[in-house]
Write a structure and sequence with these properties.
single chain; globular; 332 residues; alpha+beta; 10 helices; binds ligand DP6; nine-stranded mixed sheet; four-stranded antiparallel sheet
Amino acid sequence: MATSDNGGRGVGRARAGANFALVKYWGKADAALNVPAVGSISITLDSLYTETTVELAPDLGVDELTLDGKRRAEDGAKLSACLDLLRRKAQVDTRARVTSRNNFPTAAGLASSASGCAALVRAAEAAFGLALTPRERSILARQGSGSAARSIFGGFVEMHAGVAPDGTDSFAEPLLDGAEWPLEVVIAVTAKGEKEIGSRSGMTRSATSSPYYAAWVAGQPPDLEAARAAIRARDFAALAEVAEHNCLKMHAAALAAQPPLVYWNGATVECLHAVRRLRAGGVPVFFTIDAGPQVKAVCAPGARGQVERTLHTVPGVLELMTSALGPGAELC
Ligand code: DP6
């Protein structure tokens, strides 16, 4: 809830987990409203998260962001655009001091924009004294970052691209509680530092120059249907098949862009093969890779130990991180 001190300042603090898409969002239908061209399905994680405090600051002329201990003037426009949406709803004009911390590397293909925007919306809602529905939160988070619409919810989540010109039907919804099918994720970190081409410019470049982009968009409805059915039936083999195929199709569209978008390094490819070998040998695991070189190995309950032992030995893997499925964005 919003709290006020004697200066009339509202403060909100929230935590949101990162999410990884199993059926991916890649491309926009409306850049201004940040409406995706395709729906997507994801899992929200519990041990990779962002914690954000929003404090209303009548003394400030512009919003101020401190991320992982550093002032980020370069992210000011994006931050203010998101806060403006909440200010409009609250009918206030007050600027905010925002302090945010990721407990994992920022902008390295580990979904920091998703958890960051979801935590920001949830914390700002409290600071501005609003009481939004989860759907409203998801719509606001989407305008900050498309994947963030999904981090509002926990477990298995579906994002609807929507058809309304104003984006009001472009939001995420929970599909299945994580406790109902407690998958785990092993993340193989194969490079550190911020990625060269972020998702936003990568997807624009794919949409405008890749000969495979139209085929990517056209193939999404059947993939969403297959993933939805697999999740409903807790059918790991079926989910593995559609998720890996969908991931490779996204990267195929990106690879064929001009200039090409090669998000992988050698270790990324080695991990992909290692995961496929494990599954061929009967270990229930599949990979997914986003706009960066890290490999996320999604494990059926009980498979995590074997997957960790194997990925640990892959040359070029710098570090492994693990996570269970987690809750949606919450005040903390
Ligand atoms: C490859 O949500 O970061 O991770 O809406 O422009 O902020 P913007 O893009 P973003 O893109 C995520 C792309 C992806 C796939 C996914 O998470 O679905």
